Amino acid sequence: MATVPTSTATADLKSHLAQVFAQYPIEIAHGEGVWLHARDGRKILDFYGGHAVAGLGYGHPRWLAALERQARQMAFQTNALPMAVRERAAARLAKFAGLGLDTVFWINSGAEANENALKLAFKITGRSKAVALVQGWHGRTAAAGAVTWGAHEKWYGFPRLPFDVSFVPRDDPAAVEQFVDADTAAVIVEPVQGVGGAYDVGKPMLQALRQRCDDVGAFLIFDEVQCGMGRTGAPFAANFYGVTPDLLSAAKALGNGFPVSALLVSRRVAAQIKYDDMGTTFGGGPMACAVAEAVIDTIESESLLANVRTVSTYIRSNCVIGPVTGTQGAGFLLGLKTSRPAKEVQAALLERNILTGTSGDPHILRLLPAYILNEGHVDRLCDALAKIPA
Ligand SMILES: Cc1ncc(COP(=O)(O)O)c(C=O)c1O
To answer: Cα torsion for 263, 252, 333, 228, to the nearest 10°?
Structure first.
């Protein structure tokens, strides 16, 4: 029998963390609004928002107050015991979305929301296949990874996929018909792809997917883990494009840093969900729900959707400068097209104390700032870009 090597010399390790993440050369001590304060004293302007999570920025007083209030009142309770905050947050989220997806299932991460969305689609239709888009990203779990472009070649790990998957080109509405057929349980799509390069899939493609799903009786799932919760300047990208899915997954900015995700489903789907079809321990925890409620409250009361729209337009008009040749994406999920590899531009910006992201597209610099970003912050980015050779 093969033996698994073990090590007792843990004290020799430089870090006890699994070495799976490339690391930026800054150690963060604390954050405030759109600013990061590094241990070495640097103050860094954050255009990356903790990978699209910090929609309200760091340390927002309403977010902190909601966390503290709920922690004192009841930090955690099982879904088997009804709690008003859970009900209230679900109603608030459904109303914020305004899409008629009025049933909410709370979970903890983006992948988990997509995993459940796919499971429901397979369970309800009894079909065998999912369709996803080229360059789409949906998470690291078995089903979410199966519909993630390139995962199988790079990191998937499981010996086989749990269902058949095909990938439709992201810019070809005419091709949809040949990929989505009567065996298709679900089509899953990020309306604005994140990892794929802040790429706006666009209304014609989304409409073609909606139409074809209706024609063959498949479910349309919008993965709005990254592009949802106000990031496009609308509550969800579904509102932004005027195309409504059957299921929608939300996470990241929903909790502004407290882990929470949600699956929103249509009445047609909800009518077919039975007890025990889904489950979770931490999903729907009172702190997660209190935070989600506070995030929506803040987005609405501080008119942050309007701010995203205004400042996004300002970025698009002013930041095509230095190595930036154009823009793509929507709202605050923006891609700056770069003449040089985006990684080089990112490193040059970080030397000037501005944090940005990259993506699966080597010539796209990804911006995912907090919704409180203003034009003065953008001016700093433009000035820095102007100093970087094209
Ligand atoms: C569009 C999209 N879907 C799903 C996920 C997975 O979310 P999580 O890491 O919370 O599981 C991500 C994460 O980056 C994402 O961008």
So the answer is: 20
Query: What does each C-alpha distance from 140 to 120, 229, 257, 364 come to in angstroms?
Result: 18, 21, 19, 23
Which H or E run contains 249?
Answer: strand 247-250
- Among residues 267, 308, 370, the alpha carbon closest in space to that of 45 is found at 370
Rounded distance, CA 229 to CA 258, Å?
A: 14
Distance 225 CA to ligand 1 centre (A): 6
Residues having CB closer than 6 A to ligand 1 are 109-111, 114, 137-139, 190, 194-195, 223, 225-226, 251
Mean pLDDT of 245-258: 98
Contact 223, 138 (CB under 8 A): yes
- Distance (angstroms) between ligand 1 centre and the Cα of 111 equals 6
Cβ atoms of 138 and 111 within 8 Å: the answer is yes
Q: Is residue 101 a contact partner of residue 90, using CB atoms and an 8 Å limit? A: no
Give the residue whose CA is nearest to atom 13 of ligand 1.
139
Cα 211 from Cα 205, distance rounded (Å): 10
The rounded percent of the chain whose pLDDT value lies above 90 is 96
338-382 tens-digit pLDDT: 999 999 999 999 999 999 999 999 999 999 999 999 999 999 999
Point out the ligand 1 atom lying closest to the alpha carbon of residue 261.
10
The number of the ligand 1 atom at minimal distance from the alpha carbon of 136 is 1
Q: Cβ contacts of residue 88 below 8 Å, gap of 6+?
A: 289, 293
As a residue count, the chain comes to 390
